[in-house]
Protein backbone atom coordinates (compact mmCIF):
# COMPACT_ATOMS: atom_id res chain seq x y z
CA UNK A 1 0.00 0.00 0.00
CA UNK A 2 2.77 2.34 0.95
CA UNK A 3 4.77 1.40 -2.13
CA UNK A 4 1.77 2.19 -4.35
CA UNK A 5 1.46 5.66 -2.84
CA UNK A 6 5.12 6.36 -3.40
CA UNK A 7 4.84 5.47 -7.09
CA UNK A 8 1.87 7.83 -7.59
CA UNK A 9 3.70 10.67 -5.93
CA UNK A 10 6.75 10.06 -8.08
CA UNK A 11 4.64 10.04 -11.22
CA UNK A 12 2.96 13.28 -10.26
CA UNK A 13 6.27 14.93 -9.54
CA UNK A 14 7.65 13.67 -12.85
CA UNK A 15 4.68 15.06 -14.82
CA UNK A 16 5.01 18.35 -12.99
CA UNK A 17 8.67 18.55 -13.87
CA UNK A 18 7.83 17.88 -17.52
CA UNK A 19 5.27 20.64 -17.47
CA UNK A 20 7.69 23.05 -15.90
CA UNK A 21 10.80 22.28 -17.88
CA UNK A 22 9.46 21.38 -21.31
CA UNK A 23 8.66 24.53 -23.33
CA UNK A 24 5.65 24.50 -25.66
CA UNK A 25 5.93 25.00 -29.38
CA UNK A 26 5.00 28.48 -30.67
CA UNK A 27 6.32 30.30 -27.60
CA UNK A 28 9.30 32.47 -26.80
CA UNK A 29 11.87 30.75 -24.56
CA UNK A 30 15.17 31.71 -23.01
CA UNK A 31 18.33 29.98 -24.10
CA UNK A 32 22.11 30.11 -23.69
CA UNK A 33 24.68 30.31 -26.48
CA UNK A 34 26.82 27.20 -26.37
CA UNK A 35 29.01 27.86 -29.37
CA UNK A 36 29.29 29.77 -32.65
CA UNK A 37 30.28 27.87 -35.75
CA UNK A 38 29.74 28.17 -39.51
CA UNK A 39 27.85 31.43 -39.22
CA UNK A 40 25.36 29.95 -36.77
CA UNK A 41 24.82 30.08 -33.03
CA UNK A 42 24.16 26.79 -31.17
CA UNK A 43 21.67 27.56 -28.40
CA UNK A 44 20.58 25.42 -25.44
CA UNK A 45 16.89 26.06 -24.77
CA UNK A 46 16.64 23.66 -21.80
CA UNK A 47 15.37 20.12 -21.33
CA UNK A 48 18.47 19.00 -23.17
CA UNK A 49 17.22 20.68 -26.38
CA UNK A 50 19.56 22.51 -28.67
CA UNK A 51 18.91 24.44 -31.83
CA UNK A 52 20.74 26.50 -34.45
CA UNK A 53 20.10 30.12 -35.50
CA UNK A 54 21.87 32.12 -38.23
CA UNK A 55 23.96 34.92 -36.76
CA UNK A 56 22.33 37.49 -39.08
CA UNK A 57 19.11 37.08 -37.10
CA UNK A 58 20.90 38.67 -34.13
CA UNK A 59 22.06 41.71 -36.08
CA UNK A 60 20.25 44.92 -37.00
CA UNK A 61 20.00 45.76 -40.74
CA UNK A 62 23.40 46.75 -42.04
CA UNK A 63 25.21 45.76 -38.82
CA UNK A 64 27.29 42.79 -37.60
CA UNK A 65 25.97 40.46 -34.89
CA UNK A 66 27.62 40.89 -31.48
CA UNK A 67 27.15 37.46 -29.87
CA UNK A 68 29.46 35.41 -27.63
CA UNK A 69 29.25 31.88 -26.10
CA UNK A 70 27.53 32.06 -22.76
CA UNK A 71 25.19 34.93 -23.73
CA UNK A 72 21.56 34.48 -22.83
CA UNK A 73 19.08 35.13 -25.59
CA UNK A 74 15.38 34.75 -26.28
CA UNK A 75 14.28 32.63 -29.22
CA UNK A 76 11.01 31.43 -30.68
CA UNK A 77 10.46 27.65 -30.42
CA UNK A 78 8.88 26.61 -33.67
CA UNK A 79 9.35 22.83 -33.22
CA UNK A 80 10.62 20.71 -30.30
CA UNK A 81 12.49 18.27 -32.51
CA UNK A 82 13.16 18.00 -36.22
CA UNK A 83 14.45 15.07 -38.28
CA UNK A 84 17.95 15.63 -36.93
CA UNK A 85 16.75 15.64 -33.35
CA UNK A 86 17.35 19.37 -32.94
CA UNK A 87 14.93 22.05 -31.83
CA UNK A 88 13.78 24.39 -34.58
CA UNK A 89 14.21 27.92 -33.16
CA UNK A 90 14.25 31.48 -34.53
CA UNK A 91 15.64 34.67 -33.06
CA UNK A 92 13.89 36.77 -35.73
CA UNK A 93 10.46 35.42 -34.82
CA UNK A 94 11.19 35.97 -31.15
CA UNK A 95 12.13 39.56 -31.85
CA UNK A 96 9.01 39.93 -33.95
CA UNK A 97 6.72 38.68 -31.20
CA UNK A 98 8.48 40.86 -28.68
CA UNK A 99 8.32 43.82 -31.06
CA UNK A 100 4.61 43.37 -31.79
CA UNK A 101 3.83 43.42 -28.07
CA UNK A 102 5.87 46.55 -27.64
CA UNK A 103 4.47 48.23 -30.77
CA UNK A 104 0.84 47.48 -29.92
CA UNK A 105 1.34 49.18 -26.59
CA UNK A 106 3.03 52.19 -28.25
CA UNK A 107 0.22 52.37 -30.85
CA UNK A 108 -2.42 52.33 -28.12
CA UNK A 109 -0.58 55.07 -26.19
CA UNK A 110 0.12 57.07 -29.42
CA UNK A 111 3.83 57.01 -28.65
CA UNK A 112 6.69 57.25 -31.08
CA UNK A 113 8.74 54.17 -31.95
CA UNK A 114 12.32 53.89 -33.08
CA UNK A 115 13.28 52.21 -36.30
CA UNK A 116 15.57 52.25 -39.32
CA UNK A 117 14.81 52.36 -43.05
CA UNK A 118 16.53 49.40 -44.65
CA UNK A 119 14.89 48.77 -48.02
CA UNK A 120 12.93 50.24 -50.91
CA UNK A 121 9.65 48.73 -52.16
CA UNK A 122 6.96 49.83 -54.58
CA UNK A 123 5.33 52.98 -53.27
CA UNK A 124 7.70 53.50 -50.34
CA UNK A 125 10.25 51.90 -48.00
CA UNK A 126 10.61 49.11 -45.41
CA UNK A 127 11.43 49.99 -41.82
CA UNK A 128 12.84 47.71 -39.10
CA UNK A 129 11.12 48.53 -35.81
CA UNK A 130 13.33 46.28 -33.68
CA UNK A 131 12.08 42.98 -34.99
CA UNK A 132 8.91 43.93 -36.85
CA UNK A 133 8.97 45.20 -40.44
CA UNK A 134 6.77 48.17 -41.24
CA UNK A 135 5.84 49.96 -44.47
CA UNK A 136 6.74 53.64 -44.88
CA UNK A 137 4.75 55.22 -47.79
CA UNK A 138 6.72 57.61 -49.99
CA UNK A 139 4.37 60.45 -49.07
CA UNK A 140 5.15 59.94 -45.37
CA UNK A 141 8.93 60.21 -45.63
CA UNK A 142 9.18 63.99 -45.35
CA UNK A 143 7.04 67.12 -45.41
CA UNK A 144 8.27 67.67 -48.97
CA UNK A 145 8.96 65.13 -51.72
CA UNK A 146 12.33 63.39 -51.23
CA UNK A 147 14.32 62.77 -54.38
CA UNK A 148 17.18 60.86 -52.72
CA UNK A 149 16.44 58.76 -49.63
CA UNK A 150 20.03 57.42 -49.45
CA UNK A 151 21.08 59.56 -46.44
CA UNK A 152 18.08 58.21 -44.47
CA UNK A 153 18.85 54.51 -45.02
CA UNK A 154 20.01 52.60 -41.88
CA UNK A 155 19.64 55.67 -39.71
CA UNK A 156 17.83 55.10 -36.43
CA UNK A 157 15.07 57.67 -36.06
CA UNK A 158 11.60 58.02 -34.57
CA UNK A 159 8.40 57.06 -36.42
CA UNK A 160 4.69 57.35 -35.74
CA UNK A 161 2.52 54.27 -36.20
CA UNK A 162 -0.43 55.15 -38.44
CA UNK A 163 -1.98 51.70 -38.72
CA UNK A 164 -1.25 48.11 -37.62
CA UNK A 165 -2.92 44.70 -38.02
CA UNK A 166 -1.18 41.86 -36.13
CA UNK A 167 -3.28 39.16 -37.72
CA UNK A 168 -2.22 40.23 -41.20
CA UNK A 169 1.22 41.34 -40.08
CA UNK A 170 0.77 44.87 -41.47
CA UNK A 171 2.26 48.01 -39.95
CA UNK A 172 2.21 51.46 -41.58
CA UNK A 173 4.43 54.19 -40.12
CA UNK A 174 5.14 57.87 -40.83
CA UNK A 175 8.27 59.92 -40.50
CA UNK A 176 6.48 63.01 -41.80
CA UNK A 177 4.14 63.15 -38.79
CA UNK A 178 7.17 63.39 -36.48
CA UNK A 179 8.71 66.17 -38.58
CA UNK A 180 5.44 68.12 -38.76
CA UNK A 181 4.99 67.90 -35.03
CA UNK A 182 8.53 69.05 -34.50
CA UNK A 183 8.14 71.82 -37.04
CA UNK A 184 4.88 72.91 -35.44
CA UNK A 185 6.62 73.29 -32.09
CA UNK A 186 9.49 75.14 -33.74
CA UNK A 187 7.10 77.34 -35.73
CA UNK A 188 5.17 78.25 -32.61
CA UNK A 189 8.40 79.28 -30.89
CA UNK A 190 9.64 81.34 -33.84
CA UNK A 191 6.27 82.97 -34.48
CA UNK A 192 6.01 83.94 -30.83
CA UNK A 193 9.16 86.05 -31.32
CA UNK A 194 7.90 87.74 -34.52
CA UNK A 195 5.63 90.78 -34.86
CA UNK A 196 4.12 92.61 -37.81
CA UNK A 197 6.37 95.33 -39.22
CA UNK A 198 9.53 93.58 -38.04
CA UNK A 199 12.50 93.36 -40.45
CA UNK A 200 14.23 89.99 -40.52
CA UNK A 201 16.72 88.03 -42.62
CA UNK A 202 15.65 84.85 -44.36
CA UNK A 203 16.82 82.30 -46.89
CA UNK A 204 14.89 81.67 -50.11
CA UNK A 205 13.80 78.04 -49.80
CA UNK A 206 11.48 77.57 -52.76
CA UNK A 207 10.26 79.60 -55.74
CA UNK A 208 6.85 79.27 -57.38
CA UNK A 209 4.99 81.24 -60.04
CA UNK A 210 3.13 83.28 -57.43
CA UNK A 211 6.00 83.98 -55.03
CA UNK A 212 8.80 82.53 -52.91
CA UNK A 213 8.97 80.73 -49.56
CA UNK A 214 11.54 82.21 -47.21
CA UNK A 215 12.93 80.29 -44.23
CA UNK A 216 13.02 82.55 -41.18
CA UNK A 217 14.84 80.04 -39.03
CA UNK A 218 12.49 77.11 -38.66
CA UNK A 219 9.37 78.69 -40.06
CA UNK A 220 8.55 79.59 -43.68
CA UNK A 221 6.94 82.82 -44.78
CA UNK A 222 5.40 83.58 -48.16
CA UNK A 223 6.86 86.45 -50.12
CA UNK A 224 4.20 87.07 -52.77
CA UNK A 225 5.34 88.22 -56.19
CA UNK A 226 3.37 91.48 -55.81
CA UNK A 227 5.32 92.30 -52.62
CA UNK A 228 8.78 91.76 -54.08
CA UNK A 229 9.15 95.13 -55.79
CA UNK A 230 7.12 98.21 -56.62
CA UNK A 231 7.59 97.46 -60.31
CA UNK A 232 5.87 94.63 -62.16
CA UNK A 233 7.58 91.25 -61.63
CA UNK A 234 6.51 88.60 -64.15
CA UNK A 235 8.20 85.74 -62.28
CA UNK A 236 9.97 85.67 -58.87
CA UNK A 237 13.06 84.13 -60.47
CA UNK A 238 13.72 87.52 -62.08
CA UNK A 239 14.97 88.91 -58.77
CA UNK A 240 15.41 85.90 -56.44
CA UNK A 241 17.30 82.60 -56.45
CA UNK A 242 17.06 79.56 -54.17
CA UNK A 243 19.52 79.75 -51.27
CA UNK A 244 19.80 83.53 -51.44
CA UNK A 245 19.66 85.47 -48.16
CA UNK A 246 17.19 88.36 -48.31
CA UNK A 247 15.98 91.05 -45.96
CA UNK A 248 12.18 91.06 -45.62
CA UNK A 249 9.50 92.71 -43.55
CA UNK A 250 6.79 90.78 -41.71
CA UNK A 251 3.53 92.08 -43.18
CA UNK A 252 0.99 89.81 -41.49
CA UNK A 253 0.96 86.88 -39.06
CA UNK A 254 -1.96 84.49 -38.70
CA UNK A 255 -1.62 83.05 -35.19
CA UNK A 256 -4.14 80.28 -35.88
CA UNK A 257 -2.78 78.92 -39.15
CA UNK A 258 0.83 80.04 -38.48
CA UNK A 259 0.96 81.63 -41.91
CA UNK A 260 3.35 84.53 -42.36
CA UNK A 261 3.18 87.07 -45.18
CA UNK A 262 6.42 88.84 -46.08
CA UNK A 263 7.36 91.82 -48.21
CA UNK A 264 10.50 93.27 -49.75
CA UNK A 265 9.16 96.39 -51.45
CA UNK A 266 7.92 97.67 -48.08
CA UNK A 267 11.56 98.32 -47.18
CA UNK A 268 11.88 100.72 -50.14
CA UNK A 269 10.40 104.16 -50.81
CA UNK A 270 6.97 104.07 -52.44
CA UNK A 271 7.32 105.70 -55.89
CA UNK A 272 3.61 106.54 -55.89
CA UNK A 273 4.24 109.21 -53.25
CA UNK A 274 5.74 111.46 -55.94
CA UNK A 275 3.76 110.40 -59.02
CA UNK A 276 1.59 113.52 -59.29
CA UNK A 277 4.63 115.78 -59.06
CA UNK A 278 6.71 113.84 -61.57
CA UNK A 279 3.96 113.12 -64.09
CA UNK A 280 1.51 116.06 -64.30
CA UNK A 281 -1.67 115.79 -66.39
CA UNK A 282 -1.14 116.21 -70.19
CA UNK A 283 2.63 115.83 -69.85
CA UNK A 284 4.35 113.49 -72.34
CA UNK A 285 6.85 110.85 -71.22
CA UNK A 286 8.74 107.92 -72.71
CA UNK A 287 7.87 104.55 -71.17
CA UNK A 288 8.37 100.83 -71.75
CA UNK A 289 5.52 98.43 -72.58
CA UNK A 290 5.50 95.76 -69.84
CA UNK A 291 2.28 93.86 -70.51
CA UNK A 292 -0.36 93.62 -73.24
CA UNK A 293 -3.97 92.59 -72.63
CA UNK A 294 -7.18 92.51 -74.66
CA UNK A 295 -8.23 95.89 -73.26
CA UNK A 296 -4.96 97.78 -73.57
CA UNK A 297 -1.24 97.90 -72.75
CA UNK A 298 0.61 98.67 -69.51
CA UNK A 299 3.49 101.11 -69.81
CA UNK A 300 6.15 101.55 -67.11
CA UNK A 301 6.91 105.22 -66.57
CA UNK A 302 9.55 104.44 -63.93
CA UNK A 303 10.32 101.39 -61.74
CA UNK A 304 7.18 100.78 -59.69
CA UNK A 305 4.90 103.12 -61.63
CA UNK A 306 2.82 101.72 -64.47
CA UNK A 307 -0.03 103.25 -66.40
CA UNK A 308 -2.67 101.75 -68.66
CA UNK A 309 -3.10 102.83 -72.26
CA UNK A 310 -6.66 101.74 -72.95
CA UNK A 311 -7.29 100.29 -76.39
CA UNK A 312 -9.50 103.29 -77.20
CA UNK A 313 -6.53 105.63 -76.57
CA UNK A 314 -3.98 103.78 -78.69
CA UNK A 315 -4.67 104.97 -82.23
CA UNK A 316 -6.73 107.59 -84.00
CA UNK A 317 -7.45 105.33 -86.93
CA UNK A 318 -7.10 101.67 -85.87
CA UNK A 319 -10.41 100.78 -84.28
CA UNK A 320 -11.35 97.37 -82.86
CA UNK A 321 -7.75 96.15 -83.23
CA UNK A 322 -5.94 94.08 -80.59
CA UNK A 323 -3.34 96.19 -78.75
CA UNK A 324 -0.68 93.61 -79.67
CA UNK A 325 -0.97 94.74 -83.30
CA UNK A 326 -0.13 98.32 -82.34
CA UNK A 327 2.63 97.90 -79.73
CA UNK A 328 4.86 95.05 -78.54
CA UNK A 329 6.26 94.06 -75.15
CA UNK A 330 9.47 95.93 -74.14
CA UNK A 331 8.86 98.56 -76.85
CA UNK A 332 9.57 102.15 -75.83
CA UNK A 333 6.71 104.52 -76.59
CA UNK A 334 5.76 108.14 -75.98
CA UNK A 335 2.59 108.52 -73.93
CA UNK A 336 0.55 111.38 -72.50
CA UNK A 337 -0.71 111.36 -68.89
CA UNK A 338 -4.51 111.64 -69.03
CA UNK A 339 -5.55 110.93 -65.45
CA UNK A 340 -3.98 110.00 -62.07
CA UNK A 341 -5.73 108.25 -59.18
CA UNK A 342 -3.16 108.00 -56.40
CA UNK A 343 -5.59 106.32 -54.01
CA UNK A 344 -6.16 103.44 -56.42
CA UNK A 345 -2.57 103.68 -57.74
CA UNK A 346 -3.75 104.06 -61.32
CA UNK A 347 -2.49 106.20 -64.17
CA UNK A 348 -4.44 106.54 -67.42
CA UNK A 349 -2.22 107.12 -70.43
CA UNK A 350 -2.82 107.98 -74.06
CA UNK A 351 -0.73 106.92 -77.02
CA UNK A 352 -2.66 108.65 -79.79
CA UNK A 353 -2.60 111.99 -77.93
CA UNK A 354 1.12 112.30 -78.67
CA UNK A 355 0.21 112.67 -82.35
CA UNK A 356 -2.09 115.17 -84.09
CA UNK A 357 -5.65 114.17 -84.86
CA UNK A 358 -5.48 113.12 -88.54
CA UNK A 359 -9.00 114.46 -89.13
CA UNK A 360 -7.90 117.90 -87.93
CA UNK A 361 -4.87 117.74 -90.20
CA UNK A 362 -7.02 116.67 -93.15
CA UNK A 363 -9.53 119.47 -92.52
CA UNK A 364 -6.70 121.99 -92.58
CA UNK A 365 -5.06 120.66 -95.71
CA UNK A 366 -8.18 119.63 -97.63
CA UNK A 367 -10.98 122.21 -97.37
CA UNK A 368 -14.35 121.55 -98.99
CA UNK A 369 -14.10 121.35 -102.76
CA UNK A 370 -10.54 119.91 -102.73
CA UNK A 371 -9.96 117.09 -105.15
CA UNK A 372 -8.52 113.88 -103.66
CA UNK A 373 -7.48 110.52 -105.03
CA UNK A 374 -7.61 107.26 -103.12
CA UNK A 375 -8.07 103.51 -103.20
CA UNK A 376 -11.46 101.92 -102.58
CA UNK A 377 -11.02 100.18 -99.19
CA UNK A 378 -14.51 98.85 -98.68
CA UNK A 379 -17.89 98.69 -100.43
CA UNK A 380 -21.12 98.71 -98.43
CA UNK A 381 -24.81 98.92 -99.23
CA UNK A 382 -24.77 102.67 -98.67
CA UNK A 383 -21.57 103.70 -100.43
CA UNK A 384 -17.80 103.44 -100.91
CA UNK A 385 -15.01 103.97 -98.38
CA UNK A 386 -11.93 105.55 -99.93
CA UNK A 387 -8.46 105.62 -98.31
CA UNK A 388 -7.10 109.13 -97.73
CA UNK A 389 -3.81 110.64 -96.49
CA UNK A 390 -3.23 110.16 -92.76
CA UNK A 391 -4.47 106.55 -92.78
CA UNK A 392 -8.11 107.67 -92.65
CA UNK A 393 -11.12 106.93 -94.84
CA UNK A 394 -13.69 109.10 -96.58
CA UNK A 395 -17.13 107.94 -97.66
CA UNK A 396 -18.83 108.41 -101.01
CA UNK A 397 -22.56 107.99 -100.46
CA UNK A 398 -24.72 106.33 -103.10
CA UNK A 399 -26.26 109.68 -103.88
CA UNK A 400 -22.81 111.09 -104.65
CA UNK A 401 -21.78 108.47 -107.19
CA UNK A 402 -23.59 109.76 -110.29
CA UNK A 403 -25.77 112.60 -111.55
CA UNK A 404 -27.82 110.34 -113.75
CA UNK A 405 -29.70 107.27 -112.54
CA UNK A 406 -29.54 105.68 -109.11
CA UNK A 407 -26.42 105.05 -107.01
CA UNK A 408 -27.59 101.48 -106.32
CA UNK A 409 -27.31 100.78 -110.04
CA UNK A 410 -23.76 102.07 -110.52
CA UNK A 411 -22.05 100.99 -107.27
CA UNK A 412 -21.64 97.53 -108.79
CA UNK A 413 -19.16 99.06 -111.26
CA UNK A 414 -16.61 99.61 -108.45
CA UNK A 415 -14.22 97.03 -106.91
CA UNK A 416 -11.92 97.03 -103.90
CA UNK A 417 -8.53 98.39 -104.91
CA UNK A 418 -9.92 100.71 -107.58
CA UNK A 419 -8.34 104.16 -107.52
CA UNK A 420 -10.97 106.90 -107.72
CA UNK A 421 -11.04 110.67 -107.72
CA UNK A 422 -13.54 112.68 -105.70
CA UNK A 423 -14.17 116.06 -104.15
CA UNK A 424 -14.34 116.80 -100.43
CA UNK A 425 -17.86 117.91 -99.56
CA UNK A 426 -17.71 117.88 -95.73
CA UNK A 427 -15.24 117.18 -92.88
CA UNK A 428 -16.66 116.52 -89.37
CA UNK A 429 -13.66 116.33 -87.01
CA UNK A 430 -15.68 115.47 -83.90
CA UNK A 431 -17.51 112.57 -85.54
CA UNK A 432 -14.39 111.64 -87.53
CA UNK A 433 -16.30 111.65 -90.81
CA UNK A 434 -15.27 112.82 -94.24
CA UNK A 435 -17.85 113.04 -97.03
CA UNK A 436 -16.71 112.75 -100.64
CA UNK A 437 -18.44 113.07 -104.00
CA UNK A 438 -17.38 111.37 -107.21
CA UNK A 439 -20.13 112.94 -109.30
CA UNK A 440 -18.96 116.42 -108.28
CA UNK A 441 -15.80 115.86 -110.33
CA UNK A 442 -17.85 116.30 -113.56
CA UNK A 443 -19.84 119.32 -112.42
CA UNK A 444 -23.63 119.44 -112.09
CA UNK A 445 -25.22 119.04 -115.56
CA UNK A 446 -28.60 120.03 -114.13
CA UNK A 447 -27.26 123.32 -112.79
CA UNK A 448 -25.40 123.95 -116.02
CA UNK A 449 -28.48 123.15 -118.09
CA UNK A 450 -30.94 125.39 -116.29
CA UNK A 451 -28.41 128.21 -116.11
CA UNK A 452 -30.27 131.30 -114.88
CA UNK A 453 -33.69 129.62 -115.02
CA UNK A 454 -35.68 130.18 -111.86
CA UNK A 455 -39.25 129.93 -110.70
CA UNK A 456 -41.51 132.12 -112.87
CA UNK A 457 -39.18 132.08 -115.88
CA UNK A 458 -40.71 131.53 -119.35
CA UNK A 459 -38.74 129.00 -121.37
CA UNK A 460 -39.23 127.15 -124.67
CA UNK A 461 -39.29 123.35 -124.55
CA UNK A 462 -39.54 120.63 -127.17
CA UNK A 463 -42.21 117.94 -127.03
CA UNK A 464 -40.59 114.46 -127.04
CA UNK A 465 -43.45 112.17 -126.07
CA UNK A 466 -47.26 112.19 -125.94
CA UNK A 467 -49.02 110.27 -123.14
CA UNK A 468 -52.57 110.12 -121.79
CA UNK A 469 -51.62 111.94 -118.62
CA UNK A 470 -49.63 114.70 -120.29
CA UNK A 471 -46.62 115.37 -122.47
CA UNK A 472 -42.88 114.78 -121.97
CA UNK A 473 -40.66 117.69 -122.94
CA UNK A 474 -36.91 118.50 -122.85
CA UNK A 475 -35.03 121.67 -122.07
CA UNK A 476 -31.30 121.76 -122.72
CA UNK A 477 -31.23 117.96 -122.48
CA UNK A 478 -33.15 117.89 -119.15
CA UNK A 479 -36.41 115.95 -119.28
CA UNK A 480 -39.61 117.18 -117.62
CA UNK A 481 -43.27 116.21 -117.71
CA UNK A 482 -46.28 118.52 -118.09
CA UNK A 483 -49.48 117.06 -116.69
CA UNK A 484 -52.75 117.17 -118.58
CA UNK A 485 -54.20 119.75 -116.17
CA UNK A 486 -51.29 122.08 -116.94
CA UNK A 487 -51.63 121.91 -120.73
CA UNK A 488 -54.08 124.85 -120.98
CA UNK A 489 -56.08 127.36 -118.98
CA UNK A 490 -59.10 126.23 -120.95
CA UNK A 491 -60.29 122.78 -119.82
CA UNK A 492 -61.40 121.95 -123.37
CA UNK A 493 -57.84 122.48 -124.59
CA UNK A 494 -56.22 120.22 -121.96
CA UNK A 495 -55.76 117.48 -124.57
CA UNK A 496 -52.27 115.93 -125.04
CA UNK A 497 -53.12 114.82 -128.58
CA UNK A 498 -53.26 118.44 -129.80
CA UNK A 499 -49.44 118.46 -129.47
CA UNK A 500 -47.04 116.65 -131.70
CA UNK A 501 -43.52 115.31 -131.12
CA UNK A 502 -41.03 118.03 -132.05
CA UNK A 503 -43.41 120.93 -131.31
CA UNK A 504 -41.88 123.94 -129.60
CA UNK A 505 -43.93 125.19 -126.67
CA UNK A 506 -43.47 128.16 -124.33
CA UNK A 507 -43.98 127.19 -120.67
CA UNK A 508 -43.71 128.81 -117.27
CA UNK A 509 -41.29 127.35 -114.66
CA UNK A 510 -43.31 126.60 -111.51
CA UNK A 511 -40.58 124.81 -109.50
CA UNK A 512 -36.82 124.11 -109.55
CA UNK A 513 -35.98 120.99 -107.46
CA UNK A 514 -32.20 120.51 -107.27
CA UNK A 515 -32.53 117.31 -105.22
CA UNK A 516 -34.80 115.49 -107.65
CA UNK A 517 -33.17 117.38 -110.51
CA UNK A 518 -36.56 118.19 -112.03
CA UNK A 519 -38.21 121.33 -113.40
CA UNK A 520 -41.90 121.97 -112.73
CA UNK A 521 -43.44 123.32 -116.00
CA UNK A 522 -46.93 124.55 -116.92
CA UNK A 523 -48.56 126.00 -120.07
CA UNK A 524 -51.60 126.91 -118.00
CA UNK A 525 -49.50 128.97 -115.61
CA UNK A 526 -47.93 130.83 -118.53
CA UNK A 527 -51.35 131.70 -119.96
CA UNK A 528 -52.63 132.90 -116.60
CA UNK A 529 -49.52 135.02 -116.10
CA UNK A 530 -49.85 136.55 -119.55
CA UNK A 531 -53.52 137.33 -118.95
CA UNK A 532 -52.77 138.99 -115.66
CA UNK A 533 -50.03 141.06 -117.23
CA UNK A 534 -52.33 142.18 -120.07
CA UNK A 535 -55.05 143.24 -117.64
CA UNK A 536 -52.59 145.27 -115.64
CA UNK A 537 -51.23 146.96 -118.76
CA UNK A 538 -54.30 147.54 -120.96
CA UNK A 539 -57.32 147.57 -118.77
CA UNK A 540 -58.72 147.70 -115.28
CA UNK A 541 -61.67 146.37 -113.40
CA UNK A 542 -63.64 149.64 -113.73
CA UNK A 543 -62.88 150.60 -117.37
CA UNK A 544 -65.77 148.55 -118.74
CA UNK A 545 -63.53 146.93 -121.36
CA UNK A 546 -64.14 143.27 -122.04
CA UNK A 547 -61.47 140.59 -121.79
CA UNK A 548 -61.54 140.21 -125.59
CA UNK A 549 -61.00 143.96 -125.99
CA UNK A 550 -58.04 143.82 -123.63
CA UNK A 551 -56.43 140.84 -125.34
CA UNK A 552 -57.06 142.43 -128.75
CA UNK A 553 -55.40 145.59 -127.59
CA UNK A 554 -52.51 143.55 -126.17
CA UNK A 555 -52.05 141.74 -129.46
CA UNK A 556 -52.21 145.00 -131.44
CA UNK A 557 -49.68 146.48 -129.06
CA UNK A 558 -47.41 143.50 -129.69
CA UNK A 559 -47.63 144.14 -133.44
UniProtKB/TrEMBL annotation:
Residues 26-92, 110-176, 197-265, 282-352, 369-439, 456-524 form the S1 motif domain. SMART domains: S1. One of its GO terms (cellular component) is cytosolic small ribosomal subunit. PANTHER family: 30S RIBOSOMAL PROTEIN S1 (PTHR10724), SMALL RIBOSOMAL SUBUNIT PROTEIN BS1C (PTHR10724:SF7). Keywords: Repeat, Ribonucleoprotein, Ribosomal protein, RNA-binding. Binds mRNA; thus facilitating recognition of the initiation point. It is needed to translate mRNA with a short Shine-Dalgarno (SD) purine-rich sequence. The keyword DNA-binding does not apply. It comes from Limimaricola pyoseonensis. This is 30S ribosomal protein S1. Gene3D superfamilies: Nucleic acid-binding proteins. The lineage of its organism: Bacteria, Pseudomonadati, Pseudomonadota, Alphaproteobacteria, Rhodobacterales. It comes from the Bacteria. GO terms for molecular function: mRNA binding; structural constituent of ribosome. Belongs to the bacterial ribosomal protein bS1 family.
